[in-house]
Amino acid sequence: MANKLLGHITAINGNMIEVAFEESVVQNEVGYVLVGEERLKSEVIKIADNTAYLQVYEITKGLKVGDEVEFTGELLSVTLGPGILSQVYDGLQNPLPALAEKYGFFLPRGVVLDAVDDTKKWHFTPTAKKGDTVYKGSPVGWVPEGIFQHKIMVPFDLEGEYTVASVAKEGDYDLRETVAVILDAKGEEIKVRMSFEWPVKIPIKAYTRKMVPTEPMVTKVRIVDTFFPVCKGGTYCIPGPFGAGKTVLQQLTSRYADVDIVILAACGERAGEVVETLREFPELEDPRTKKSLMERTVIICNTSSMPVAAREASVYTATTLGEYYRQMGLDVLILADSTSRWAQAMRELSGRLEEIPGEEAFPAYLESRIAEFYERSGYVELPDGSFGSMTIGGTVSPAGGNFEEPVTQATLKVVGAFHGLSRARSDARKFPAIDPLESWTKYKGIIDPAKVLKAHHILQRGNEVHQMMMVVGEEGTSIDDFVYYLKSEYLDSVYLQQNGFDPVDAVSDPERQKYMFDKIYDVLYTDFHFDAKDDARRFFNDLRQMTLDWNYIRMGTDEFDKKEKDIDRHIGSITA
Amino acid sequence: MKKVYNKILSIVGNVISVRARGVSNEELAEVKTKRGTSLAKVIKISNDLVSLQVFAGSRGISTDDEVRFLGRAMKVSFSDAMLGRIFNGSGEPMDKGPALSENLIEIGGPSVNPSKRIIPKRMIRTNIPMIDVFNSLVVSQKLPIFSISGEPYNELLARIALQAEVDMIILGGIGLKFDEYMYFRDELEKGGALSRSIFFMHTAADPVVEGLMVPDLCLSVAEQFALKGKDVLVLLTDMTNFADSMKEIAITMEQVPSNRGYPGDLYSQLASRYEKAVDFEGAGSLTILAVTTMPGDDVTHPVPDNTGYITEGQFYLRNGRIEPFGSLSRLKQQVNKDTREDHRAIMDGMIQLYAQYMETEEKRSMGFRMSTWDKKLLKYGALFEKQMMDLSVNISLEDALDQGWKILAECFESDEAGFRTELIRKFWPAGKDKEEKAKEEPSDDPTEEDISEEPVPETEAGEPAEKVKKKKGRTADKKKRRKA
After folding, report:
1. Distance CA B316, CA B293 (A)
2. Are residues B179 and B256 in the same domain?
3. Is ipTM over 0.90?
4. Which helix (H) or strand (E) holds B222?
5. In this structure, what DSSP letter does residue A492 have?
6. Which of residues 286-305 of A touch B (CB under 8 A)?
7. What residues of B are in contact with residue A362 (Cβ under 8 Å)?
8. Which residue of chain A has the CA closest to B454?
9. Residue A556 sits at the chain B interface (C-beta within 8 Å)
10. Residue A202 distance to chain B (closest CA, Å)
11. Which residues contact B91 (CB under 8 A, 6 or more apart)?
């Protein structure tokens, strides 16, 4: 498909154009609309009667009927290779800092820059030898990228067996140079470079097998790790109304989650939120590597005012980059904020195509698209015997905070964990505002599930008592029920709630969680006897205050032990 | 290349279509009728069939009226000569001044590169305590004022326009009543702010579609001034009218509606306007305050709902006051640590006490016996509403903080209010508190068990609001939601 085919515009409707073509057109191939110097990237999304329907990834102002469109024959692709980490891309993998350097404050239209600098030299160390048999995804060597060994792999589109004919010696190479030559079954030479292209909408499957996720991904958020854990290679979603703290929760996860690489897909959300990450991450230290957090982060940033069609592409761009790093045996976490905006982008497009609308005008294929996206996650075994994982967490912004809407419902069908944020909790300033009674998970976490279940039972019981108390008043509640209520409130305020802005409390590592959980579990299942409700309340108030103070003290210090003894003494004063 | 066509094929709603060639998307055209000339914008092209949205409305257009394409997209003149002027929704003068035609800029330009944005850190003082103290407005913030018809939101906007610490004001009226428009003009003139203001006014009497351009006109002009180093505040009222105009066009164009008739791209359309708010590094800034009336006082209505997802917080204007509970400035944490050391403590502490007051008020209305503490809270609530929440209160942030301490001292003992000892030593008004010397430690639990289910943990001045304000806001919020 090397010879460029041309077509011309016959109709324009918002960001969709109709293009008459002569020869052939590939579904989902990329076309460029030529307007003067500008080349507006677009993608074929429908073909009918010698007319191709293209969504344009830019503003279509000023386009005319008759303008030429150049078809490339290639699907929408991203460049894979060293240099992706710590980058900030738009939805189509244009590096934003480079654009800013060149064009200033505003995003120019119709400009495409190299996603990775192909003139930069990388220090290549070969690992394959002449005569080795390799498959797609087999490493031939590696280059250091930040703290990682970035594996240079056989491109993923090469099916079958290949034999290594030669590998470059250790040394510095740029992305255009050949680092290995491999032969296919017919003996034809294929040159392997350090970077290659991959179409974003096709999952990378250069692994041996996909496995069930079992290893917990620790986020250091107690309510997640203890009550609603997520496993490496799993999926989860965070639906919630505006102002419930979705983005704060994702930011915390992106900082502290126990993974190698975090890819943030800011999809149709506020630019201001991305800015915080952009400006703060380079200064923040990764608790695991002591290097800047930015070194393990990639930001795909297609904020709400950027063109809608590119928003649709941005989540695919993020997952493709994630799959690429998974192929190197790394644990990758994709955080998509927010999948609702992505679904809305699909809806806008579907409307322009005049497709028959489904519920709330979302297209009928909404569910299958959402499922496809989450299904790209997974824990996989790679050709060289190592393991990699890609976990996907998506936020959902349901209209009016009502979870009975198509995007939330379609997402719930396919994810492994549901962290539902509630307006009631965020209004009461209980953060993270994950509703402990509505949320669920299918994964096993770091704490004995039987105990977690019993602790959860206290929450449910406490809630029932609370509901009852609202009707009959405190006077009409028995003291035993009242203690249940106090216990559930205690668990809620000292364990489920966590101060994301406090340096100690924000980061609760597994040892601390296990330790604290055991202590609190003992309180929950101790029989306390109080004569009056006021005594009970006073006891739990003091206990809560002490435990909260304890939360703010670093574990392993004398102060920590001292506070613990205070707590024990306080508990002892009742049970003794 | 100006081409004239005089065969209009269809007139549906405010959209007309003609057969024309060489027309570009979003190009402007003039439609000449017996009643005058109106601008129109190309919104869809299919082969040689061009659909245009007529700003003055289609009423009275004849099928043989003249359509002349201008060969350019909508532009607006930009110069210092605009200050003090009033324009309509097509950018034409509404006052007696001359039309401006030099230095034309395109409206609805490209969006700002996110990597060029900076973390906002300058506060805009408005001398309205409910904003300055409790939900500070920050440069480059975009904030809606959620309200319902009948509330004094335009009065609030006018006051902010007069008092906000910015270089210039751009006021965009969409579907404004004529007397509201006159009110704005008179107020700003009286306050001497007209010379640093620009008006783009679309009144309810004007054709609906003309209002669609107002936000873009305001924001494009504001952006240019910001690039020239000015701190610009854009006030828009009312964005619900803007959304309704979009709905009208979308339905005329037979687009599939998504939610309550609004087009599927409502979010993107609103976002592309609100996201113009920015602080340019090394230049000026653009801040947006926009009134969004909630039909039926329903915050889950598509317009306020989508807006809430886009903006950085919201002010609820209810019963003539800015509600302390639902209102939120997401950026306030960026600025209120550097104002005065007691700012955050007052911000959180007073709201907590006010939340307790609401609870007590509820109990009182149900006929429960009032304890001493309850009585104190009742007194506090009344004072707080009168001296802080009332929109006529007009004092600087520092005075408002002092005022806060004065109210507290008038109602409570220094150890009851739940503030840290150092702050009490420094700020508690002298002579009001006899026990100050005697008490070294503030009480852990000032709420007195007999009236409160859940005591408030001690307020830490340095802590973010997410941690404090716990619990106590809940009942009040619930009530508010129920009302909503």
Report:
1. 10
2. yes
3. no
4. helix B214-227
5. I
6. 301, 303-305
7. 258
8. A541
9. no
10. 27
11. B74, B76, B77, B200, B213, B217
At A522, is the pLDDT very low, low, confident or very high (cuts 50, 70, 90)? Answer: very high
The full set of domain ranges for chain A reads: 5-75, 80-112+207-439, 122-194, 449-575
Q: Which among A103, A104, A242 has the least Cβ separation from residue B308?
A: A242
d(CA A343, CA A326): 26
Give the distance from residue A245's alpha carbon to the nearest chain B alpha carbon, in angstroms.
Answer: 10
Assigned architecture for domain A80-112+207-439: 3-Layer(aba) Sandwich (3.40)
A134-167 burial, b for 16+ CB within 10 Å, e for fewer? bbbbbbbbbbebeebbbbbbbbbebeeebebebb
Instruction: Say yes or no: B1 contacts chain A, CB-CB below 8 A.
Output: no
Type of residue at B404: G
**Average confidence score pLDDT of chain A:** 91
Contacts of B120 in chain A (CB under 8 A): 272
Q: Is A359 at the interface with chain B, CB within 8 A?
A: no
DSSP structure class, residue B370: P
The CATH number given to whatever domain includes residue B325 is 3.40.50.12240
> Pairing mode, if any, of strands B168-176 and B197-203?
parallel
Top-confidence range, A10-19, A21-30, A410-419, B1-10: A410-419
B135 and B37 assigned to the same domain = no
Q: Mean pLDDT across the stretch A9-36?
A: 91
Identify the pLDDT of residue B439: 42
Tell me which chain B residues have a C-beta less than 8 angstroms from the C-beta of A305. 111-112, 271-272, 274-276
User: Does the CB of B183 have a partner CB in chain A at under 8 Å?
Assistant: no
**Burial (Cβ within 10 Å: 0-12, 13-18, ≥19) of residue B319:** exposed
Entry pTM: 0.87
Query: Which of 2.50.20.20, 3.40.50.300, 3.20.20.70, 2.40.10.170 is the CATH number of A5-75?
Result: 2.40.10.170
Looking at A132-254, which runs of residues are DSSP E strands? 133-134, 139-145, 148-153, 162-167, 171-173, 178-183, 189-193, 196-199, 209-211, 235-239
- DSSP per-residue codes, A495-549: II---TTSTTTT---HHHHHHHHHHHHHHHTS----SSHHHHHHHHHHHHHHHHH
Residue B52: phi and psi, rounded to 5, are -125, 145
Question: How many CB atoms are closer than 10 A to CB A221?
Answer: 24
Interchain proximity A341–B305, CB inside 8 Å: no
CA-based max dimension of chain B: 91
Contact pairs from chain A to chain B, CB under 8 Å = 219
- Measured on CA atoms in the order B276, B280, B286, B288, is the torsion positive or negative? positive
Residues B385 and B324 in one domain: no
Boundary residue ending a domain (B315, B335, B355) = B335
Asked whether the beta carbons of B54 and B11 are under 8 A apart, the reply is no
Instruction: Assess whether B243 and B228 both reside in one domain.
Output: yes
Residues, chain B: 484
What pairs with residue B322 in β-bridges?
A: B317
Q: Does B255 touch chain A (CB under 8 A)?
A: yes
| A105 and chain B in contact, CB less than 8 A | yes
CB contacts of A544 in chain B (<8 Å) are 457
**Judging by beta carbons within 10 Å of its beta carbon (0-12, 13-18, 19+), is residue B281 exposed, middle or buried?**
exposed
Same domain, B435 and B380: yes
B466: closest CA among B356, B358, B332? B332
Range of the domain at B156: 77-335
So what's the pLDDT on residue B451?
38
Average pLDDT over residues B38-61: 90
Q: What is the residue type of A566?
A: D
* DSSP annotation string for B302-323: HHHHHHHHHSSEEEEEETTEE-
Min CA distance, A65 vs chain B (Å)? 6
Window A:192-251, CB contacts with B under 8 Å:
241-243, 245, 248
